[in-house]
Amino acid sequence: MSRYSHHNLFAALLLGLFLLGAASCANIVPPSGGAPDTTPPKLLSMTPLDSVTNQKVKKIVLHFNKFVEINDLQKNLDLSPQLDIPPTVVANGKRVEIKIVDSLLKPNTTYRISLGNAITDNRERTPYGNFKYTFSTGSYFDSLQLQGNVLDVVSGKPDTGVIVVLYAEPFKDSMLLTKKPMYVTRTDGAGKFKFGGLPATSFKIYAIADADNNKMYGVENEKIGFWKAAVQPKAAADSSLITLKMFQQERIIPKLPDTIPKPVNKYIGKVISTDKNAVKYMVQADSSNLDKETFALNKPLNILLNAPVAKIDSAKIYLSYLNTGGIETEARRTLSTDSTSIKVHNSWQPETVYTLRLIKGWAVDTAGKELPPAKVSFKTKRKEDYAQMNIHIPAAYLSDKYILSIYKEQDSIYLKPVTDSIVSLSLLEPGSYTLKIIEDQNKNGKWDAGNVFTQLQPEAIFPHHIEVILKPGWENDIDFKYEPDAFAPDRNRPGAIPARH
Q1: What distance in Å separates the CA atoms of residue 364 and residue 167, rounded to the nearest whole number?
Q2: Where are the beta strands (DSSP E) in 55-202?
Q3: Which of 61-65, 427-431, 451-455 has the lowest mean pLDDT?
Q4: Beta partners for 148?
Q5: All residues at 6 or more sequence positions from 257 whose CB lies less than 8 Å from its CB, including other chains
Q6: Which of 237, 296, 354, 462 could potentially form a cystine with 437 if both were Cys, beta carbons 3.0 to 4.6 Å apart?
Q7: Dihedral sign of CA atoms 163, 167, 171, 174 in order
Q8: Would you call 294 exposed, middle or buried from its count of C-beta atoms within 10 A (0-12, 13-18, 19+)?
Q9: Are 316 and 372 in contact (CB under 8 A)?
């Protein structure tokens, strides 16, 4: 073999080894399988150390055993008392830096920083606990506290996840919209809150459903609760509880244009009109099958209008029914009207066929056109389709300053002053009901929300301790009972408890 051939063979071997090595490098992958690493990052060191005094700390450096990142900082970051410029928090590899504008720090003040669950590892995003750091610009740490709970005034239940804020006195309520508070904390899962490390200063205290996470009050879309008087922090052994009741500030809602409401069920009837420019109307009854009992015994017959009418001739609105002998009999009906409907009121008999006749000329629109005539027949429901409820009211609420309010889901079915120890209601739709008693302080016949800017607290509401489940054909006796502890999360029931019957 020639020397030239040896050189070619050696070059080929080198090329093969190079390609094999390159292929091996290209195919290096981490081993697959195995459970993900969900252990949280571990803090290895912190500079300066926690709980330092006589220092205006401007940078805190944290070192972890894992690569970390910062998530949801705005939601998790709390600094008390707050500064006009919040701290910056940056993660770089296994290092986190918290920077504070030290020129904003006040003398002889205790500062506490919490990052919540903002620090996580960069793979599985497992959070590093609830990081907290304390330092004082003076020679001591403030140690007074305030604590209490937050309730939703309408439901009576604890309001969880809202913020509770403190403003140093003197403070005007109008500043709620423009000024950030000094101290902020959140309610826990039981609606409780606690401030620690407070100075001996008077504060105004508020609870805010902080929907936009700006730690200020937004009157248009956020609930609020307040304590009318200023509060003074106390030593831990002498700290009393403060109860803040959340409410939605009343505001003016613009009136919508008059239109035919959308059908609420499939037995809504049909739109009646002979002229595209005339007023259309709809008789809310199912006339498709007179063998089916579909019309409610506890509601008026609605004639819905898509625009106001100028004139109604009640003598041309007839309501009749077939009596037990099969003879058609005129019903004693009454009428009521508003801009969008005409209501036909009657004491409906169960399982009975009724006929509504609207005779020519029964109504005229604002342009002088007659609404077309119509004839609609329908059959009422059985009495057994409904339930009855007898509510026994405690003597403590027997006063005209109390109102009994009953809701079925979102619909109000009863709202009247308490005048008797027993309130009996019949022809109730089966379903879930909530009962409440309202302390009607101004005796205007309804519940009034508060006004934080005029220091008016919402009227008190006392909810019945459980939902009431009504079934068809049942007669339910209910002893009204207000039990504040029943609304605590640790005592919530897995489901509603039906009333005895």
Answers
A1: 62
A2: 59-64, 68-70, 78-80, 88-92, 95-99, 110-116, 119-121, 131-136, 144-152, 163-168, 183-186, 192-198
A3: 451-455
A4: 193, 242
A5: none
A6: 462
A7: negative
A8: middle
A9: no
Matching residue, tokens 């019903």: 331
Dihedral angle of Cα 285, 286, 289, 295, to the nearest 10 degrees: -60
**pLDDT digits 0-9 by tens, 364-407:** 988 888 888 999 999 999 999 999 999 999 999 998 899 999 99
Q: CA-based diameter of the chain, in Å?
A: 128
Q: How much is the pTM? A: 0.64
Residue 251: both structure tokens together = 């505001």
Q: How many helices (H) and strands (E) does the chain have?
A: 2, 35
150 forms beta bridges with 244
Structural domains in the chain, CATH included, are 43-136 (2.60.40.1220), 144-246 (2.60.40.1120), 271-382 (2.60.40.3710), 386-491 (2.60.40.1120)
Residue entry with tokens 């006040």: 106
Q: E strands along 71-155, which residues?
A: 78-80, 88-92, 95-99, 110-116, 119-121, 131-136, 144-152
Phi and psi, residue 330, nearest 5°: -75, 135
